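Hello,

Our lab assistant flagged a job as stuck in the queue for most of the afternoon. It eventually completed. Since we weren't sure the result was trustworthy after the delay, we are filing this so someone can double-check. Below is the sequence as submitted and the structure that was eventually returned. Let us know if re-running is recommended.
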Amino acid sequence: MDGEANSLETIINNNLNGYDLEQYNRIYYGRRNHLEVPIKESSKDKSEEFDFDIIAYSFPAKIEQIRPARIVKIGVIQHSIVLPTDQPISLQKAAIFEKVKVIIETAGEEGVNILCLQELWNMPMFVATREKHPWCEFAESAENGPTTRFISELAAKYSMVIVSPILERDENHSDILWNTAVVISDNGNVIGKHRKNHVPRVGDFNESTYYMEGNTGHPVFATRYGKIAVNICFGRHHVLNWMMFGHNGAEIVFNPSATVGGDTGSEYMWNIEARNAAITNSYFTAAINRVGNERFKSEFTSGDGMPAHHSFGPFYGSSYICAPDGVRCPGLSRTRDGLLIGVLDLNLNRQVRDRTCYQMTQRLDLYVNSLSKVLDIDYKPQVVYEKRK
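-- returned structure --
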């Protein structure tokens, strides 16, 4: 995208070096050395041929006397759409399949165990348009739709768990729509699905035009490689959402998103929220965002008094992984497709819990009592005023 910075890391590396760069890394990322993991030459060749970035980082834990290391390799993919949004639905989807298949295969060849795609990965992010036709035609069954069948084949081929966020058509309940993450096991079976808990009604993103808040709670999926959960996009702004995945046993929480930059966007919050969640809940997080600037034929407005527009601005990518101790890796590009790989030792979760005692000191009894009072229709906030004589 013309005029867009490639990444925060590019800005820093172009302006800092030596001691200053080392100290920046220590203060911002949490460690002086990013612990980059080598990538196969064949994967590098494929990334150059098909024009996407690929990089990997390690997140080790201390060696324990009783438990062996629990190493799992995760991957996240960010990408742009391929065809203009006025092209036939079937062609748009097929073109995205063709592009993303190459990146998924590269992840498989790199030995990735668990892979997560971005929110509504197989379509443009049309929710701002508030038009029903033709966008609802992207919706499909989570259990046996074409996208799930496509991903299932790749999951089985590479013995890889894949999280596939789609627009779900609920055929058993009046064909209504949901924003859903389908979790497919390493043998190609659908383990289950999670529907987006928090639906935005802000600016261009008034997504309740298409679907409402999910009804699946906070499921954690016990995979061959570890227990994972999916906090879809806007849910990252809600602390209790992250917390409940932790209480249900999540070891890794993925945050597949589609969020834009600009002065009114959320980019300045992006590097904070998934990282805060990792720290507070003592689990790994992976934040995934798409890239590109998607334009639509019909103009739409945002309800903010600004002129009508055909696009809600560029998605800024910057996908990253964060460990439970708050250490994070550099993000992917703001402008380019990419595959980010993390080599995690899940033992780090409990090691951090033992050190910080955040779970032991969180006082759930105090807050469940307070929250029950907040829900009372006659609730009076606990505000103490000065008593004047």
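-- support follow-up --
The delay was a queue issue, not a problem with the job. The result is valid. The radius of gyration is 21 Å. The mean pLDDT is 95.
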